[in-house]
Structures are given as C-alpha cells and as structure tokens.
C-alpha cells in the first residue's frame, strides 16, 4: 500500500520566508550585484583607511591568527590568511572555470579560442610594454605584470548593467578573454613572483596531488573529502616557495568534467530510490537509510563535479572571499602615498595608462590583426565596436591586479602607488566601458528599422 500525505497549508510566515529566500537566491546570481558588492567593499576600505579610525583598519589586518595542534603552532597575520589561504578558494573557482571552458566552452578548440587568445595576449603585452616604458628602475620594474590582469567579476558585472541589448557573444568573448588573462596571470605568478624554490616542499605537494588522484580513482564524489588533500597541496606549495594560492588552480584543473562512474545512471538511481521509499507501508528509520543514501548519491552525481562545486562555491567567493580581499587590500592611506617621489608617480601613471589605454589598444589591435591574417573571424553578432567594448572593460584590473601588486612590491609606498593606479584605472575603465556601451546601444536603436 502506497503512503500518500495530503497536502498541507503552510503557515503564512513560512510562505513569506520561502519567497524571500527564493528572491534572495535569484538576486545573488545576478552578475552585476557581485560587482557592486566588490565596489562597496573597496569604497569602505578606502574610507576606513583614511578616516580617524585608520589605525584600527591596519591593526585589524595585522592581528595574528594561529592554528595549531599540541606544540605545533602556525601563526600569521589575518592579512596572510586572506591573501594566501582564502584566495586559494578564489583560484579554485578560476581553475574550474578554465577546466570547463577547455572541455566544452570557448576554449574547447583552437578555432573557438583563436580570437579570445589573440585578444588576451594583446591585452597582456601592450599594457606590460607601456608600464615598462615608464618604469625602468628595477624596484619599479617588478610591477610590470600588475596591469596585465582583468577582473572577471567586475568586468562581467559592468557588462550586465548594459542589459540585453549587448549581444550574447560579446559576453562570451569577454569571459573567454578574462579566463585566458587569468591563465596568463597564474603562469606569471608561478614564474616571476614565487620565491626561490625549496624542493623539499615538492614531496608534500606531490602527496596532496596523489591523494586527490587516489580519491578520484576509487570514485569518491563528495567535495568535502578533498579538503584535506587540498590543504596538503597548499602546505606543500607554501613550503616550496611557490605562491600557495596556486594550489586552488591545480585542484580546479583536476576537477572532473564528467560525473563519476556508477552502476546506474543518476536519474535511474534516484527513480528507484524514490520508488523504494514510496513502496513500503511502514519503513523503519534503518530501512529508510539505504534509499535515502542512494537518493543523495544520485542527486550529487546528476551534475559533473566541476559544475556542482563551482555552483556551490560561487556565492561564497563572490560575496565573501572577494569582498573580504578588497576590504583588506584596497584600503590605501592616501596620506601614506608620497606621489611627490618620481618612482611612485611612475608606478601610478604606468598602471593607470597601461590599464585604461593599453588594454583596449592591445585587445583591439591583436584582434584586428588576427582577423586580418585569417586566423579567426568575429563571432556572429560581434562588431568591432563590441571588440572595443570588451577591450575597455578588460581595463578593469582590480582584484587580480591588486593581488599581483602585493606580490610585486616590497616597498610600501610603491605598493600603495600601484594600488592607487589600479583603483583609478578600474574606475575610469568602468566609466568608459559603460559610456561606450550605452552609446552603442542607443545608436543601434536609432538605426533599427521601425516595425
């Protein structure tokens, strides 16, 4: 005999709460919102760092945070835990995004990747050359990579503000370009901003990788099972001297793009488990455990791990990790930046010009050259004005540019000068991108034939 529970009227408070949470969930997945939150975090940091409470701002991020077991204690500043540990989660999402795009997205073939690859390389080389032309001293020269990066969240968020009038392929091009930018940034960090390698740490890092591969081999699908191997890999890279956030990229690239092998298809398993739950008359809790376990397993394996984990981490990264990073790193004390020094001026101006002028120039010129040489062609719906829009928005460096600046400069004044350049450039690039996008959409509406 099947058990059927008659529908019940829910309390009004519960109905209102469900609607509120549903609305909040949709709101959190609007890309423009995450960019606005990031901007607010940066603004709060700037105001706080230049207010009478500035001392508390700096004291907070230098406060020691310790973890330990018995006599073994590891103590670092809160700033370290944000920049070197939490940002590994951000890079994990970046790694999974790269993995997805290589598997079935804009980077799945050379034909698809040719245009964004050319645009991204132009958007890396030209800004770097502009910066290097204005900064020839060795201490300043270390910041050459600061203006080469694009902030995906900010750039895509600004594009979303332009609405549906922007062709979908423009967004795809911007995403692909930003992802390739991230790949280049990761390679730059590994090659130029990691200390001298201590090869003893490679054994620990290798152990972490083998643990991940071993768990995948035996079919462990729970993401929580990979936290400890990921931590081992992070510690190994820290000991090696490579920046430990690269552990996130490595884990992201190792995340499977297809669901784990099962004796039954996930939907078939879910259907059978539901049938078993509904078939009995009075199942005991012990008898319910088996079908419920199968139902949870089927639910987990419906989506490939690379999509499932990325979806789960997205709100935490977009509304937790990245705003916290901005709050901890965007607080430049303007009184503490001595722009009267030629070195500081050169760094600020170099970063500003490289992002605002170098990015769109590099993206547009490299794209035009690649199309002209016949290596690729513009996607349907993407005009040269759309390519210029992508180039302008690529000048929003923010998160990744500030992150590279923290690795590039030891001198506090040069670091703050670079941050000022990044913040100004990101603001100018966002305004220029919005202005160009709105002008293009208005012109398109005027030229559209009347129905």
Overview of the structural elements:
Helix 5 packs antiparallel against helix 15 and helix 12 runs antiparallel to helix 13 (285-301). The longest helix has 36 residues, at 412-447. This protein has a domain at 34-48 and 74-86 and 106-194 and 330-451: Na+/H+ antiporter like domain (Na+/H+ antiporter like fold, Up-down Bundle). The radius of gyration is 25 Å and the shape is globular. A two-stranded antiparallel ribbon has the order 1-2. It starts with 11 loop residues before the first helix and ends with a helix. It has 18 helices and two strands. The mean pLDDT is 82. It has helices at 12-28, 31-49, 54-62, 78-104, 110-134, 138-141, 152-161, 168-192, 200-217, 227-240, 246-254, 266-279, 285-301, 305-329, 342-372, 384-394, 398-408, 412-447, and strands spanning 64-69, 72-77. It has 451 residues and is mainly α.
Tell me the layout of helices and strands:
Blueprint: H1 12-28, H2 31-49, H3 54-62, E1 64-69, E2 72-77, H4 78-104, H5 110-134, H6 138-141, H7 152-161, H8 168-192, H9 200-217, H10 227-240, H11 246-254, H12 266-279, H13 285-301, H14 305-329, H15 342-372, H16 384-394, H17 398-408, H18 412-447
Antiparallel strand pairs: 1-2
Helix pairs in contact: 2-7, 2-14, 4-8, 4-11, 4-14, 5-8, 5-15, 7-8, 7-18, 8-16, 9-10, 10-11, 12-13, 14-17, 15-16, 15-18, 16-18, 17-18
């Amino acid at each position: 005999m099947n058990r059927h529970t008659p529908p019940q009227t829910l309390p009004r408070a519960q109905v209102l709460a469900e609607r509120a949470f549903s609305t909040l969930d949709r709101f959190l997945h609007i890309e423009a919102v995450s960019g606005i939150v990031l901007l607010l975090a940066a603004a709060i940091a700037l105001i706080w760092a230049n207010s009478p409470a500035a001392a508390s701002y700096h004291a907070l991020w230098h406060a020691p945070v310790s973890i330990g077991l018995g006599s073994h204690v590891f103590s670092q500043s809160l700033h370290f835990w944000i920049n070197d540990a939490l940002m590994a989660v951000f890079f994990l999402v970046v790694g999974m995004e790269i993995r997805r795009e290589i598997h079935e997205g804009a980077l799945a073939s050379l034909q698809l990747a040719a245009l964004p690859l050319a645009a991204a390389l132009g958007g890396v080389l030209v800004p770097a050359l502009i910066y290097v032309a204005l900064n020839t001293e060795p201490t300043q020269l270390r910041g050459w990579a600061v203006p080469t990066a694009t902030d995906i969240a900010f750039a895509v968020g600004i594009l979303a503000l332009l609405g549906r009038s922007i062709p979908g392929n423009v967004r795809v091009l911007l995403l692909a370009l930003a992802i390739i930018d991230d790949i280049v940034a990761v390679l730059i960090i590994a090659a130029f901003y990691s200390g001298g390698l201590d090869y003893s740490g490679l054994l620990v890092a290798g152990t972490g990788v083998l643990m991940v591969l071993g768990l995948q081999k035996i079919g462990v699908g729970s993401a929580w099972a990979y936290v400890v191997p990921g931590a081992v890999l992070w510690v190994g890279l820290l000991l090696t001297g490579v920046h430990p956030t690269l552990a996130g990229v490595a884990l992201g690239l190792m995340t499977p793009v297809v669901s784990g092998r099962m004796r039954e298809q996930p939907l078939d398993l879910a259907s059978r488990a539901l049938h078993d739950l509904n078939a009995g008359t009075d199942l005991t809790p012990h008898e319910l455990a088996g079908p419920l376990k199968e139902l949870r397993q089927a639910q987990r394996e419906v989506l490939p791990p690379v999509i499932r984990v990325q979806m789960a981490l997205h709100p935490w990264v977009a509304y937790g990790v990245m705003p916290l990073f901005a709050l901890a790193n965007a607080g430049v004390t303007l009184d503490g930046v001595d722009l009267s020094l030629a070195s500081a001026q050169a760094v600020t101006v170099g970063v500003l010009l490289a992002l605002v002028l170098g990015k769109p120039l590099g993206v547009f010129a490299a794209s035009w050259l690649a199309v002209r040489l016949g290596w690729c062609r513009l996607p349907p719906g993407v005009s040269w004005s759309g390519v210029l829009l992508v180039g302008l928005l690529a000048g929003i460096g923010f998160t990744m540019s500030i992150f590279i600046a923290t690795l590039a400069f030891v001198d506090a004044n040069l670091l703050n000068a670079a941050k000022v350049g990044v913040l100004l450039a990101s603001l100018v690039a966002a305004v220029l991108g919005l202005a160009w996008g709105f002008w293009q959409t208005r012109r398109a509406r005027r030229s559209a034939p009347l129905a």
